[in-house]
Amino acid sequence: MSKVQDKAKIVETIIKSAAEYKAKMVGRSFLYVFEGRSIEVVYRTKDFMHLTGVDSNSSAEQFFKDAIRGRLQPKQIFFSTRHPYDLCSKKMTQLGNISKIIDSELFILEDTETSTFTYKFGLTDLELTVCLSEDTDQNGNIVGDHYIARSLRVEDSFDRADGAFEVQYIFSKKNGCRKYDTITYIDKRKKIEDLPDDVRDMLDDSLK
Question: In what order do the strands lie in the sheet with 37-42?
Fold first, then answer.
């Protein structure tokens, strides 16, 4: 396959994955519960490009818009030392499965270390890992209570983390809603009644 054909295939995968990301993940908040603890995560449009592993001269927001509209072109993407082709190709094998991290059996990894950064948490189904960090402004100050998706890894990440725990519940709500009103995953061994009081207080009455 030629380089041009290869880039076209990558763009095709990105376009399909962006549609899935927008339909199932963007505009919602997700509450992950594990070992009596919980974290809230949002998946933003401006973080999608970094998950793909490609470089682009387009802004992150424009990149996502072009992908959603099916207008992203091979000439808009390129590879670099920071975003090498081989790593991108590896990510393409799992990018289309990214929505599994909002409604499937998962492990949450704590303090996940990579060659360049230590992420506070990672979500993994053993085939892909989405690395999460706190949202910060340009000065490094934390803004908001939600974690955001920073990186997609296609590798066994357990040996890179300080701790690994089973995710027991995943809840969802539309951004702007006060309470979580949708269960997207629950461990068969668990019940809503088993939740800590502080987590139960975050749920809509319809779930209790």
Answer: 163-166, 107-113, 118-124, 129-136, 142-153, 37-42, 28-34, 169-174, 182-186
Question: Distances from the Cα of 85 to the Cαs of 67, 81, 88, in angstroms?
Answer: 19, 9, 5
Distance CA 38, CA 58 (A): 35
Instruction: Tell me what pLDDT residue 2 has.
Output: 45
The DSSP letter of residue 5 is H
**pLDDT per residue as tens digits for the range 1-20:** 445 568 999 999 999 999 99
Q: Please name which of 208, 207, 78, 184 lies closest in space to residue 123, comparing C-alpha atoms.
A: 184
- Specify the pTM: 0.93
d(CA 94, CA 9): 14
In whole angstroms, give the CA distance from residue 89 to residue 135. 27
Beta-bridge mates of residue 113: 118
How far, in Å, CA of 61 to CA of 5, rounded? 25
pLDDT of residue 5: 61
Q: Which of 126, 133, 134, 131 shows the shortest CA–CA distance to 107?
A: 126
CA dihedral 65, 71, 73, 79 (to 10 degrees): 20
Contact between 24 and 102 (Cβ < 8 Å): yes
Which residue ranges in the chain fall short of pLDDT 70?
1-5, 115
